[in-house]
Specification:
Order of helices and strands: HEEEHEHEEHHH
Strand order of the largest sheet: 1-2-3-4-6-5
Helix content: 40-55%
Structural class: alpha+beta
Radius of gyration: 23 Å
Number of strands: 6
């Protein structure tokens, strides 16, 4: 009735779309959380690229803090805003970020933009994140978020078959693989 399941689903995805057409990508690791801001489909209404970038970054500030609260992210949070040329625009984004974080109950500290255009936020971890509560590591990739390429799997199969050739003694060997790997083989 209140759209709660949609919000939970949205909070479990790594890519979150912004109202402007841009998006943020949230990647949680053991040591820190990385948030990347991208313009996506948003091209802006003015001819100045800087205006489009500032608008996307300002739009992202609200959603970043919202996602941090929804997902209950804590520890070190690194935000990679889109690079802005003008110092006043970087300051506008910082002020907006500070204002939004003041509304959060968990204590946090913000470091100014560094030379790489990154902003570091530390936020007190009060309990496990939403991802850790609702999810568990993938049994296939064991939580690494990584799946081997089809070509790599084929190469590994060929290597194992070469090792087994002397033991086969002319007998048939059956290899069970996904349909994509079978096509490649």
């Amino acid at each position: 009735e209140y759209g709660l399941q949609q919000e939970i689903d949205k909070a479990m995805r790594s890519k979150v779309w912004l109202r402007s057409g841009g998006y943020i990508v949230v990647n949680q690791t053991e040591a820190l959380v990385a948030i990347d801001v991208n313009t996506g489909k948003f091209v802006g209404k003015s001819n100045r690229l800087e205006d489009t970038i500032v608008r996307t970054n300002m739009d992202a500030v609200h959603e970043i803090v919202r996602q941090v609260r929804l997902r209950n992210l804590g520890g070190i949070i690194i935000v990679d805003f889109i690079d802005m040329d003008e110092k006043k625009n970087r300051q506008r984004v910082m002020v907006a970020l500070e204002d939004e974080l003041r509304k959060d109950r968990s204590p946090s500290k913000i470091l100014q933009f560094n030379d790489f255009g990154l902003v570091a936020i530390t936020r007190k971890r009060t309990q496990p994140s939403l991802e850790r509560i609702l999810g568990s590591p993938c049994p296939r990739c064991v939580g690494s978020g990584f799946v081997k390429a089809i070509e790599t799997v084929c190469y590994e199969i060929f290597q194992e078959v070469r090792k087994m050739v002397s033991e086969l003694d002319g007998h048939e060997l059956t290899v069970r693989v996904s349909s994509d790997v079978a096509k490649a083989l």
